[in-house]
Amino acid sequence: MAGFKWGVGTLCAVIPEIDLGPITLQTFGLMFAAAFIVSGWLIAKRLKELDAPIDWAYELILAAAVGGVLGAKLWFSFQEGEWSFDQIFSGTGLVWYGGALGGAAAVAAYAKWRGIFNYTLLDICAPALAAGYAVGRIGCQLSGDGDYGKTTDAWWGMGYPDGTVPTAPGEKVYPTPILETVSMALLAYVLWRLRNRFAPGVLFAIYLIVSSIERFLIEFLRRNEVVALGMTLAQVASLGFIAIGLAMILALKDRPIPSKRSLTGPDAA
Question: Where along the chain do its domains lie?
Answer without folding.
Answer: 25-252
